[in-house]
Amino acid sequence: MPYQNEFADKTSHIDIVQNPDVEKFLEKCHKIEDFNGEDISSAGQQFSPPINNCFHKPDNIISIDGSFYEASRKKEYPSQKIGFIKVGVILLQGKSLSAIQGGSKFVDPYAVAKIKENNEAYSFVLPSTNIVYDDCEDVQESFRRALEEQFDNLRDKADDPNTSLKTTLFKMASYLDGCDANRVVLSKCPCCKATDNIYIYKDDEAPKCPHCGKRLYLTDILRVWEQVADVTSNQSALTRTMNIVERLLAIHYIRSIVESLKESYANTLENLCFFIDGPLAVFGEPAKFHACFMKYLHELNQTMRSLNKSDILMIGIQKSGAVNDYLNLIKDYIRNGEVYCLSDEIRNKYVTFSKNAASDTFGKETYFGQDFLYKNKKGNVFVFNVPYPFEEKSKVANFKIEKSNIANYKNIKIYTDLLDDQF
Length: 423
Description:
Layout: H1 11-14, H2 20-27, H3 37-44, E1 60-74, E2 77-93, H4 94-101, H5 109-116, E3 119-127, H6 139-153, H7 165-173, E4 183-185, E5 199-201, H8 235-260, H9 265-269, E6 272-277, H10 289-306, E7 313-318, H11 322-330, E8 338-341, H12 344-351, E9 369-375, E10 381-387, H13 399-402, H14 412-422
Parallel strand pairs: 1-6, 6-7
Antiparallel strand pairs: 1-2, 2-3, 4-5, 7-10, 8-9, 9-10
Helix pairs in contact: 4-5
């Protein structure tokens, strides 16, 4: 690292992999199997055109994308930091998209302005390093209380707490083991670390730990507070919070539609697709919620299927990572308009490496969606992720095989059509 006003010498980084010590180390590392020309060519043969179905493309897209920052409160006190998460939600309607394109290479500024009217941004301001909120005792308690308040304040109707993101979180938590529609269970008290009989009841506005008497918060069930420290960066906690909020917001919109349109929600949901930045997965401490999302979506999809409608449409777009690297390596051997459902066998052989990969399925504890690789009709390539069509991984006889069977996904043509249209 250079001193102030001194520039680092980048030449020291150029040939690091040619360093004898590095080469010797790499020789002992397990390697992902290298491609040869035949492998690359045959990889393209695994792709095929998506199967046509009776479902139509949705007219509406809700795009959800978040970002976070950690900034010093004042330049004189760089160790005091505030965390800021911003999640943008944009409603894109088919007519609006057509107006933007308009058959011309120029963008219609009036159409863009119209789309901006359907743009919302949700902000979460959270105490980070050396910031104590209100009458809290430390940074960790401050983070917990601020997160709870902001989940409660994010409401569809300001005077109705049942329309809050907090209520959506409670509903999702009710799908966890040991929880139900009236109470949820915390794995431990954040204050005294007791692990037995830590309950939060639905109608309790100020729950307390039965052991230490300290205040509990529903958002404690996400366990992101475990990553919060007093005097070091809390970027990890902010990352985990942003990840779960982006996905929970999509579920929140779905719940709002279902509960406000009890008789006709299926008609609305079949005409709507959620685009989420990143895979359909929950990482870190809140990871167990991926299973809640699976159960909730499956529950609604049972109704959708009974009415001959498509499963709820949700797509995670992955812009980087090892799977993208693999796809870019083989893209010249893929025909336009063809898709592939990524199997664990191919992933383990050419994308990632793990000694226990052969015995376990990728994303077992985190993913609620399956990876697909697609080269659209314009020749652009995408890694996208769509919800598993199952209630629980454990209820599928051979989940590892069935999750990568493209025949189990009845609406892939909708997703590929959307990727053809938008990109």
